[in-house]
Specification:
By secondary structure, the chain is an alpha+beta fold. Helix content is about 30%, strand content about 20%. It is built from 9 helices and 16 strands. An 8-stranded mixed β-sheet has the order 1-2-12-9-14-7-6-3. It has a 4-stranded antiparallel β-sheet with strand order 8-13-10-11, with no helix packed on it. A two-stranded antiparallel sheet has the order 4-5. The longest helix is centred in the middle third of the chain and has 28 residues, at about 140-170. It is globular. The two termini are about 35 Å apart. The structure holds L-homoarginine (HRG), 2-oxoglutaric acid and fe (ii) ion. 2-oxoglutaric acid (AKG) binds near residues 187 and 272. 2-oxoglutaric acid binds near residues 189, 272 and 282. Keywords: Cytoplasm, Dioxygenase, Iron, Metal-binding, Oxidoreductase.
Length: about 325
Amino acid sequence: MASNFKTIPIIDISPLLKKRDDPNMSEDKGVLEVCNLLDRACKEAGFFYVKGHGIPDSLINAVKDVTRDFFDLPYEEKNKIKLSAVTGYRGYQRIGENITLGVPDMHEAIDCYREVTPGMYGALGKSLEGSNMWPSNPSNFKLLMEEYLGLLIDLSRRIMQGISIALSGSPNMFEGERAGDPFWVMRIIGYPALSDSTNAMKLDNDIGCGAHTDYGLLTLVNQDDDITALQVRNRSGEWISAVPIPGTFVCNIGDMLKILSNGLYESTLHRVINSSPKYRVSVAFFLEPNFDAAIEPLECCVQHTGGIAKLERAVYGEHLVRKVLTNFIM
Ligand SMILES: N=C(N)NCCCC[C@H](N)C(=O)O
Ligand SMILES: O=C(O)CCC(=O)C(=O)O
Ligand SMILES: [Fe+2]
C-alpha cells in the first residue's frame, strides 16, 4: 500500500546494468543497493525516476521531436492511420476518443502493441490481432520508434531483474511462463495546451488523462521537459507532481506486478493535467507479462505478507482486453 510520499525518488541503476550478464549479480554490493532502493520506491510510491539507464539523451529527445512533428500535422493526415477494432486497436486516436472512468481524455495518441498474428492466442487475443500502424510522415518515425522500442524492452527487463532480486533474491522470477516472452504496449501521446480551448479546438475539460493505474508490470515514461503535468496520488489522496527531470524515465508499477507481489508493491493511481500554455508530448512504454500468463501472488511475496494470498489470480491478456474494449466506444 502506497505511503504518504511527498516526492518521487530518483534511482541510478547503472550498477545493475553493469552486472547485467553476471550470473552472480544478486550477490554484488552495488546491485543490492539498487535493489534496495527499487524495493523501497515500489513499496512507498509505486513510482520512481531512473537515471544511469544507458539510453542516449539524443534518442530520448529525437523520439519526442518526431512525436511533436506528427501531432503538428493536419487531422486528415494523422487520421490515415486511424485506430479501430479492425486494426486491433492500433493506430491514431483523436482528442477525446480515449475514455477514462467514463470521461473523454483530452489527449491524442498512437497506440502500439506487440504484434499478434491470427490465432496466436486463440479467442483471448482475437481483438488485439494485428500489427502496428506507423505514419509515413515524419519519414523516419517508424525506424526511430522501433530502435527505441528495442532498447526499452531490454531496459525494462533489466529493471525487472532488479525488482525480482528485491522480491525473491533471484533475478529470474519474471522469466519463463510469467514474463519470459513479454507482451508490450507503447503509447505516443500529445496533450493540447489549455489555451487551445480558446481556438478552434474547444477542450471539453482539462483532464489530459483521467486517474488510472497501468495494467502490466512496469511503465517507463519519456515525458516532455519543462511541463509539469503527470500527477501521482499518495495514500491520503494528495496529488504529487512527477516534475520532469531531463534524461530520466518516470517508472511505475502496473496491476500485474501488484498481484505478483501480493500487494507489497502498489500500482499507484496517476493522471495527467496539462495546465501549461504549451502542447505536451510523452511516450509511455509498458512492459507486460506473457500475453497468456496466469498471474498470481508469488510464493515468496505471500510469505512476506502474512502467509495469505490477498490478490486474485488474473490472466493478463483478459485484463488488457477488458481495459482496451472499455477505453473506446466504437
Ligand atoms: N496501456 C495503458 N496502461 N494505458 C493507460 C491508459 C490509461 C487511460 C485509459 N483510458 C484507462 O482508463 O485505463
Ligand atoms: O503522459 C504521461 O506522463 C503519462 C501517461 C500515462 O499515464 C499512460 O499513458 O498510462
Ligand atoms: Fe498510466
